[in-house]
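ok so I'm stuck.
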Amino acid sequence: MHVAQRAVQAVGRFCFLPSAQRAAGAGAMRSAFVIGRFNLLALAQRAA
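replied:
not stuck anymore, here's the structure
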């Protein structure tokens, strides 16, 4: 029972890791896009 539980946890962690990395990458890209757009807006306002 305990060994099976540990195996299930290991498999779950192994399957969860790529999706977590993908979600983190998507979140980082989205935040970078928002920050870049915010910087562009700030530059445009400063230039105006």
